[in-house]
Every structure is written in C-alpha cells, then in structure tokens.
Amino acid sequence: MSKFRKKKKGLPPVNTAALPDIVFMLLFFFMVTTTMRETDLKVENPVLPTATEVKKLEDKSLVSTIYVGKANDPKYGSGYNRIQLNDKIGTAEDVPAFILSRRDKISEDKHLRMTTSIKADKRANVGTITDIREQLREVNALKISYSAAKGAN
Amino acid sequence: MARRENPEINAGSMADIAFLLLIFFLVTTTMNVDSGVPKRLSEKPPEEFEPPIVKEKNIFEININRNNELLVEGEELKIGDLKAAAKKFIDNGGGEGKIVDATPTGPCAYCKGDKDPESSDHPNKAIITVTSDRLTEYGTYVKVQSELIGAYTDLRNNLSLQRYNISYTELEKQYKKIKDDKDQKSKADVLKIRYEDIKKAYPQIITDAEPTSD
Fold this sequence. Notes:
The structure holds two protein chains of two kinds. Chain A is α/β, with parallel strands linked by helices. Chain A has a domain at 50-150. In chain A, 27% of the residues lie in helices and 20% in strands. Chain A contains four helices and eight strands. Chain A has a five-stranded mixed beta sheet with strand order 5-4-3-6-7, with helices on one face. A two-stranded parallel ribbon of chain A has the order 1-8. In chain A, strand 4 (82-85) and strand 5 (88-90) form a beta hairpin. Chain A is elongated and about 90 Å long. The termini of chain A are far apart. Chain B is 37% helix and 14% strand. Chain B is built from five helices and eight strands; from the N terminus they run H-E-E-E-E-H-E-E-E-H-H-H-E. Chain B has helices at residues 14-28, 82-90, 138-164, 168-178, 185-201, and strands at 35-40, 59-64, 70-72, 75-77, 99-100, 103-104, 127-132, 206-208. In chain B, the strands form two sheets. Chain B has a five-stranded mixed beta sheet, covered by helices on one side. In chain B, helix 3 crosses helix 5 and helix 4 (168-178) packs antiparallel against helix 5 (185-201). Classes of the chains: A alpha/beta, B alpha/beta.
C-alpha cells in the first residue's frame, strides 16, 4: 500500500501555458484592426488650428480629405500653401477632378452626404482655402469641414 | 539509473512578454478621430443673379486683416469678445422678421436682446459676413468661424432649455442617435420637430465675402 500513500495532497498548479495564446490572440486582433492612414502625406503633418465648436465627422467612407501645408519636397518651396490631393501635390484647379473621382466610387444616393474635410495647417493662408472652396462650389460639393482640434484658444 | 529528461522550458514569462507588446500597441494606437468645424457652402448662384438688397443694420461685418486683427462693425475687437458681440447682434430683435412662405414672422418674441432699432431686426434676417485678406492666417479664420458658430449654439441652447428643458446640443445628439431607428419613430418625430424648431428660430447665416488682396 505504500505506493498510494506516497501521493501528495494539495492543489495542482493551474496550467498557464494557454495564457500566452490568449494574449497573442488579443495582440493580433489589435494589430489587424488598427488602420494606418491610407495615403502618405506629401506635406508636413499639418498643425491643426484649435476651435471650440468642433463636430466629429461621421461616416468615414464619405469623407474626402484635402491636405494643405508645407510640402516635404523642397522643390515646392517653403510656403504653407501646398495642396495635397490623393497622393500628389496639386493646385486648386485639380480639386474638381479629385472630388469627381471620389464620387465615382460612391453610390449616387450618398453623394449629397459626402463631406470634404480640409486639413490645413494653421499657418496656411485664407486665400488658398478660398480657392479650394470656390472649386468645391463648382462641383457642388457643399458640405465641408475645417479640420480642427478641440481646445480653447 | 535515473533517466535524464530534457528540462521543460519555462513558458511562464511568455505571457508577460505578450502583455507588454499588447499594452505597447494599445497605448501607441491613436484612434484618428477626425473632427472639425462644419460648414455648408452656398450654392453657386446662377449667371444673372442679383443679390437681394439687405439693410445695413442686418449685416454684422467682420474683417480680418493680414496681421490677424479683427475689425468688427468698424471697431477693433479681440477675438475673445467676438462671441458676445455676435450674440448681441443676432439676439437683438429690433424689428419685424422676414416673410417665410408668405406669412410674416413678425417681431422676435423669444429674443432677449436690447431691441435696438439700429441693430438686427430678427435672427432670421441677421447676416454675418466674414471678409478676410488672402494672407490672413487660416488658424485665425477658423477661430472666428468657430466663435460665430459658438454664438449660435449658445443662443440655441438657451432657447431650447427654455422651451423644451433640454439643451440644443443634447437635443441634436439624441435626435441623430435615433433618427434611423424604426422602433422609436414616434419619439424621433417629436425630437425632429423640436430640433427643427430651434434651428429655424436661430438660422445660421454666416457668409464669406470675397477675400481682399492687393
């Protein structure tokens, strides 16, 4: 009977071998769902102006973003008024084409809900923004949003 | 003789490493919430469009020069005082409102302003125009826009609290949340009527004039 008496009593340790698997699963989930910005910036990441009355942009798929800021490439000069559409630096005259190409990808009934978000550096000039706005009016893209960070002055 | 077994690799700290990675990703991931000052552009006017004649007193004129200084109604003003000035102008209610669908809206009953005959007649007639120089800094321009929208929001909030005991911001939020929900259609309809009512009481009329430059 000595064979049986040898067995020690007490709780066996909890097997934690599966813990890393669980954690890795979480890790992969977060890594996969994290979306990176889809276009690379050709202008310096704009320093957004601050404003008190900001609203969140809903429905990301309906938002077209226009960046305005200082170009990374020195051949475009050092002003803060370069306009980036898709992946290229363009001029205000290219805005209608950009909007129309965005519209092509979206069903007709949602066109009115499309928003243009202008992400401009706060050191940009109003003239540039006015030019963009004029062009947006040409193609009837009337909903715009001046991208801004929430905060006091 | 005791057989030597391969010692098991201790995998206990594996979880720690994975957690460390997980937390690193959690912390560095910034959810890019895009937010901004919303604005609706006016439609392109037809070729031979003649702008309606608007009385001088119904226009609140803001000029921003290239040094980012503000000139409001001919006087210099700090950006921090703009909201109060705009509110005073919009809420003045010194006369008759404009004619909507062939029915005159009459004097503004809910306005709490000074009823100054030299200032705006009615919130639905009050127009704010912003003229900026082409070289004005965009940051200043956005701030001005935000202050003006803020003035409207404040007035709407006040009226909404008075009429429906709920702020306009909250009203809008609730309405937007359930407007597509079919189960709560009756509730959404009530909210819609209230929301539109407040919105109509203080319509947001902010225009951008052609920028100046030399």
